[in-house]
Design brief:
Helix content is about 40%, strand content about 15%. With about 290 residues, it is of the alpha/beta class. It has a 6-stranded parallel β-sheet. Bound molecules: the ligand Nc1nc2c(c(=O)[nH]1)N[C@@H](CN(C=O)c1ccc(C(=O)N[C@@H](CCC(=O)O)C(=O)O)cc1)CN2. Ligand LMY7XDAE binds near residues 95, 97 and 239. Homodimer.
Length: about 290
């Protein structure tokens, strides 16, 4: 069996086209969605992601604001920037690019973003809403994976989903979203004994461990759907995922590549959340082009 390739570039394009329609409609009614991204320091990967977020939001027709701050910025100053954006009526989505330098308390910064503008879906209030299934901003990477599964016609209800990884950004919310769609969910992590024996039971296997090519064909049941969230460099410095793509594609029924799989969906879902935030503001009479 050679697996079907689930392309985040193609599915992302389909969703971005839908977002553009939504943005145009909102602008026609007098409201332009605005996204602000804060970047602290000069990490090259973060710089690339932030640049792509700016480019993508402009392509979608949104207002884009980038705030670049030095690595040495104090926590107090960073919080002041967030507060200013919380009060800016032309901004509907605020994102602080992670990771932050070690002298800054990441949790405190996330909590300082207004839950109404938290388009990353990381604020504890929004995490709580997600867990009880209320409308909120869903974290972009797991939300993107759910879209990939659904738009590829993969049934989730009754399936055994195994999530390898338990980060607050990907692993934990991923399991919750799969549970809400009636999957039976198992979490595995660095302390799990006999990890391969759990992984091999998965109908849907999500690899979010952060170890290059960790998941080989020996971890995968024949016909499983394999989603690779990893972003690593191999021994030759080439971008690769947590899944050993060449061996796993021979046993899986469907697989996401790296690059071109989950990664592009993360930014797509950020745009979707920003549109949702602006739509809510418009509904509540809090959005106007005049306020730009
Ligand atoms: N505040 C946040 N910080 C971080 C998040 C996040 O969702 N919110 N996620 C990651 C980084 N990230 C977005 O911020 C991100 C990572 C990867 C990609 C992507 O498109 N990857 C490409 C490959 C890119 C390359 O060539 O290097 C792919 O997989 O095809 C987009 C966004 C951590 N921080």
């Amino acid at each position: 069996m050679t697996a079907k390739v689930i392309s985040g570039v193609e599915i992302g394009k389909e969703i971005r086209d839908e977002i553009k329609v939504g943005v145009d409609k909102l602008i026609d009614s007098g409201c332009k969605p605005g996204l602000a991204v804060i970047l602290v320091g000069e990490d090259p990967a973060s710089q690339t992601y932030v640049k792509n977020k700016e480019k993508s939001s402009i392509q979608a027709g949104m207002k884009s604001e980038q705030i670049k701050l030095p690595e040495t910025i104090s926590q107090k100053e960073l919080l002041e920037h967030v507060e200013k954006l919380n009060n800016d009526v032309s901004i509907h989505g605020i994102l602080v690019q992670l990771p932050l330098p070690s002298h800054i308390d990441e949790d405190l910064v996330i909590k300082s973003i207004s839950p109404d503008k938290d388009v990353d879906g990381f604020h504890p209030q929004n995490v709580g809403k997600m867990i009880i299934g209320q409308e909120t901003f869903l974290p972009c990477t797991p939300h993107g994976i759910m879209e990939m599964l659904e738009r590829s016609g993969i049934d989730i209800a009754g399936k055994h989903a195994v999530v390898i990884g338990r980060s607050n950004i990907v692993g934990k919310p991923m399991g919750q979203l799969l549970l809400q769609k009636d999957a039976t969910v198992t979490y595995c992590h660095s302390k799990t004994k006999n990890l391969a024996s759990f992984a091999k039971q998965a109908d849907i296997l999500i690899a979010a461990i952060g170890k290059a090519k960790f998941v080989t064909d020996e971890y995968v049941k024949e016909g499983a759907v394999v989603i690779d969230v990893g972003m690593n460099r191999d021994e030759n410095g080439k971008l690769c995922g947590d899944v050993d793509y060449d061996s796993v594609k021979e046993v899986a029924s469907a697989i996401t590549p790296v690059p071109g799989g989950v990664g592009p969906m993360t930014i797509t879902m950020l745009l979707k959340n920003t549109l949702l935030s602006a739509e809510i503001a418009q509904r509540e009479g809090k959005c106007s082009l005049l306020q730009e």
